[in-house]
């Protein structure tokens, strides 16, 4: 039974989505399973089409955003989404949408990016996270 | 945690039969490419990962040994490293 990393993704800005996929990759590299719980702005960022168009950066660092984006393009850094797709391909990574946020925003599975595997309530997520070796809030 | 930091500047006496060119790729890129490739590689194959990411010098040996494969060494080739491993199972 592999160790597990649970990630709560509350943030929806590109700068914060990078650690989500990089941490997931690190977990996969360590032979761990990954469970991602998307909530609030994290869920927003996984709406159909959003991963490809999202350019939001944390407000505190807004003036650095254009420079960061340019650097990443110049150095051919894969997008956070591509890195997450790769992690999913190489390991056991599951992405779950928070049902509370879904209901609040009136969204259904069809409204979400195909990388989302299913839904979960906070109770189920916490029940599983309590057995995870690593649980992080991003 | 054992830290493998010895980097050879001479060529190691092993010939790689597969080269993964991950130069310019950032952590965890090179490691992920190795993990993806090694699954389908024939047992016994010697793989060299070309990397400009300094994290690879420790990431790759660490993962290789943990996964039960053989870590052969790190060759410095001027503007990049060649991290050489062998698939053992």
Task: Give a brief outline of the structure.
The complex is a heterodimer of chains A (138) and B (89). With 138 residues, chain A is α/β, with parallel strands linked by helices. Chain A has helices spanning 14-29, 41-44, 50-53, 65-74, 80-90, 99-105, 122-129; strands spanning 4-9, 33-38, 93-98, 118-120, 134-137.
The percent range for strand residues of chain B is 25-35%
Supply the CATH superfamily name of chain A: DsrEFH-like
Task: Please compute the radius of gyration of chain A using only Cα atoms.
Answer: 15 Å
Q: Main sheet of chain A? A: 5 strands, parallel
Provide the CATH top-level class of chain A: Alpha Beta
Low-confidence stretches of chain A: none
**Residue ranges of chain B: pLDDT <50 for 5 or more in a row?**
none
Bin the strand percentage of chain A.
15-25%
Q: Fraction of residues of chain B in helices?
A: 10-25%
Order of helices and strands of chain A: EHEHHHHEHEHE
What is the approximate shape of chain B?
globular
Oligomer: heterodimer
Order of helices and strands of chain B: EEHEHEE
Span between N and C termini of chain B? 24 Å
User: Number of DSSP strands of chain A?
Assistant: 5
Overall outline of chain A: globular
Q: Taking all residues together, what is the mean pLDDT of chain B?
A: 89
């Amino acid at each position: 039974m592999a160790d597990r990393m649970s990630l709560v993704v509350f943030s929806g800005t590109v700068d914060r989505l990078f650690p989500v996929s990089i941490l997931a990759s690190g977990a996969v590299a360590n032979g761990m399973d990954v469970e991602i719980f998307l909530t609030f702005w994290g869920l927003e960022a996984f709406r159909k089409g959003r991963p490809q168009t999202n350019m939001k950066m944390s407000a505190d660092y807004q003036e650095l955003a254009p420079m960061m984006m340019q650097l990443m393009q110049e150095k051919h850094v894969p997008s956070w989404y591509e890195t997450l797709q790769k992690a999913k391909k190489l390991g056991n990574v599951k992405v779950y949408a928070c049902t509370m946020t879904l209901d609040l925003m009136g969204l259904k599975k069809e409204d979400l990016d195909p990388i989302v595997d299913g839904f979960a309530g906070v109770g189920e997520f916490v029940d599983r996270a309590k057995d995870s070796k690593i649980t992080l809030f991003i | 945690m054992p830290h493998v930091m010895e980097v050879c500047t001479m060529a190691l006496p092993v010939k790689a039969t597969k080269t993964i060119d991950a130069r310019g790729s950032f952590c965890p890129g090179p490691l992920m490419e190795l993990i993806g490739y090694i699954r389908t590689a024939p047992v016994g194959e010697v793989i060299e990962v070309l990397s400009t990411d300094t994290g690879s010098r420790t990431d790759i040996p660490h993962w290789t040994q943990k996964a039960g494969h053989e870590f052969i060494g790190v060759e410095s080739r001027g503007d990049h490293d060649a991290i050489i491993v062998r698939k053992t199972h």
